[in-house]
């Protein structure tokens, strides 16, 4: 880890030339193979915020110089809505722990399978319990791409950028400002894909779908307008909406049409709307653990998914419906997503499960003791110890982040290899292998440079 900006400058001397508007790569291979590991570690774990900021800036600008750039998937979804890209479902992958190694595994799979259609995302709730800010997450993903010699676009996405209902009811303005600040931070970090989730404010006690979705429509419109006002020049941020809280009742055609028609009425003329719509079809985030810690079989309604995705495409010009909470479904059902022309499927928990399965027993036991000592009040009545740990163990990822990054290289390699095989299967099942060329024809590079941090100029 670089302890100071001066130490960092010394390491870069003769290898990377710093300019006010970017960097010149003098020794690209050296940077890729020897410097980026220390840079990303310092960007995540250094105690000095200034050093962190400098490391993140160098990773971003080095990425641009080496051909790695953040991008919006908007134009691809426009093409999908026109029927130019059929029966392919884009995986949106949330990496909660051991992020650098997991992202490197993903990039290796992307390169080998020539995948162009993939998203890396993090949810508002995950930012908190994994202790990964948008700027940190972006830096780690781009560093992983550099380390693996990848060149091309990276779709970074804010997942479930959500209004907290309880906080909103207590102080609507404060909660809305908090969400807008998160969006601003994410866009500044390179997240050019944002999923707005104000479905938490759907009021099912109202008599009609239009009235039930009223708050959802109003707030989606306001947040969408805000996003359009802060997007970088040359970028149209891909924005998603949501009509049904994941884990609740299944969405209906009536709800979908009420929400999308309401958005069309409310949006200013000429303003880009949403590109996709998240619906509920029977899944629950993380799955449902049984008393022995195994997962109950989810009952996903593919008929509803197919019907609503078709309506979203044909009647409203969207890329289709989005499926959340799918990573714990049986892998042999994944081919049904492209069959139903699902736009996106969000995957998170299974990668977390693989991580925990392969952690050394000593570290895993240490995490579980910490969870029992600090979160026992969240244990539900009648819940077995296995169910409690399964539900709560995501909250151990942030406090033990550095210990996971500091695991022996052989352990991290084994975890990465298993994740890589999982990514291979997912890409094949969702039919996004060999999409690199077609996506690169649609997605044109837009290089966004960031202001140089204080203290870096010589």
Overview of this protein structure:
The chain has helices spanning 5-12, 28-45, 49-66, 74-81, 99-113, 124-129, 134-147, 165-170, 172-189, 209-212, 214-230, 253-266, 302-314, 336-339, 349-358, 361-375, 385-392, 401-405, 409-429, 436-442, and strands at 16-19, 22-25, 68-70, 90-94, 119-123, 152-162, 193-197, 238-242, 276-279, 321-323, 344-347. The chain is of the alpha/beta class and 458 residues long. Among the domains are: 5-66, no CATH class; 69-161 and 188-197 and 227-238 and 268-355 and 406-442, TIM Barrel (Alpha-Beta Barrel), CATH 3.20.20.70. Helix 14 (336-339) links the parallel strand 10 and strand 11. The longest helix is centred in the C-terminal third of the chain and has 21 residues, at 409-429. The two termini are 21 Å apart. Residues 285-290 have low confidence and may be disordered.
Number of strands: 11
Spatial gap, N to C terminus = 21 Å
The CATH superfamily of one domain bears the name Aldolase class I
Q: In CATH terms, what is the fold-level topology of one domain? A: TIM Barrel
In CATH terms, what is the architecture of one domain? Answer: Alpha-Beta Barrel
- The count of helical stretches stands at 20
**Strand line-up across the major sheet:** 4-5-6-7-8-9-10-11
Report the principal-axis shape: globular
CATH class category label of one domain = Alpha Beta
Global Rg: 22 Å
Beta-strand residue fraction = 5-15%
- Low-confidence runs: 285-290
Q: What portion of residues is helical?
A: 40-55%
The main sheet comes to: 8 strands, parallel, barrel
Structural class: alpha/beta
Chain-averaged pLDDT = 93
